[in-house]
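Subject: for your reference before the review

Hello V.,

The reviewers asked for a structural picture of the protein, and I figured it would be easier to keep everything in one thread rather than splitting it across files. Below is the amino acid sequence we used in the manuscript, unchanged from the supplementary table.
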Amino acid sequence: MNQKQHNPSMGVFAATRTLFLTSMGKLIRAVARLRGGSGSALPGLIVERIDPGFMKRTLASLPQGVIVVSGTNGKTTTTKIVVELLRGQGLSVFTNPSGSNFTRGVTSALLAAVSATGRLRADVAVLELDEAHAVHFVRQVAPKHSLLLNVMRDQLDRFGEIDTTAGMLRTIAQQTTDTVILNREDPRVASLRNDLSGQNVVFFGLDDSLVERFPTDDSLRGGAIDRSHHRLPADVILQSMDTESHANSAVFLLDGVPHYAQLQLDGVYNMLNAAAALALCRRLLGARVNEERLMNSLAAVTPAFGRGEKLIVKGQPLELVLVKNPGGFRLGLESFSPDGYATMIAINDNYADGRDMSWLWDVDFDSLSSSGVQSVSGIRATDMALRLHYDNVAVERIEPSLGDALQQFLAKYENQPKRIYCSYTAMLTLRKALGAYTEVETIS
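And here is what came back from the structure prediction:
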């Protein structure tokens, strides 16, 4: 007999270790937040080094398992939609805050959510994961379901060629134990079905009439457009959408049956993100799904921070639109008319933004030529202004300092709606500065 298996002291030791780790992690997180940081990564980094199995052990207790959401564009908003839809169906959901989309970020989020004894009270985990970090995560924790959105050239100085990024998504799909939900409109994502064995595959996609409004990476770069995958059967199809009026709305085909939703989400890209989330939730819930409640929950979802997020500053709306790559920037410009808005563009080239900003030359800025851009800011303000010049877009002010540019922008256009297109770290800086003018949601 293996006495070690029946030694009560081993159970006491494990319980004591868990109590110590969770208490220490919660304390470190609280101290970090008091010092002005989000505290999202440091506790996880420390706990990973002390107890590398903490994350896997904690997530293993979830009855509905783990869902991973990954891809170049749309992870944050899609994850938020999935979480709200599942909660609307009565499930208790654990998720990681946006910006914590790597393993130590997940561990830190777990430390904030678990009880002192290490118990995670949730039915399912829905995790947004950066493509590269997702590869490390799925090798520790195999997701039950994965949702893979798209592959575009994004921060190539970090990930290398686009096929490398596609390979990362392939690894996520292959480590998934149940169902992989794929975007049939992205040829690199749709083709992952050929590399799977044993997993169920579900697609989401677009109606024929909408395909040209959603560029693939190849079409943006003038390459041949492969649409053979567009005929793959899709569980959820975005049939039509209205983003021109103030009442954003869409019709989704769920197994061929139309369902209408009026949305608080702005932007054509978020309509496809919603289709992705619907496909995932319907697969997870199966026969238990209440589709009417599903659509009601979708109508209530508000934009994730910085992703078309709307703030009110001095009685006027201010929208923050995150831009990371040509596809995302192009869809953002298509989604939001500049008419009547003062426009600011803020571009940094910190590590989290990607150091190579040459992708800005792959964006068509013609839609801004009639209204111009009122302010350009950030580390790469001059480069951004030069790019606009070549598309005949007038720029009123170039101010590299984000704080100074924001202050001037808010003062000069005080009585006008405003919109800021910004790279990731520029968005974080601007959101913090905007806290002095209005209530800004804190991202823990």
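For the response letter, the relevant points are probably these. Residues 252 and 259 are 5 Å apart (CA to CA). The longest helix spans residues 8-34.

Happy to draft the paragraph if you're swamped.

O.
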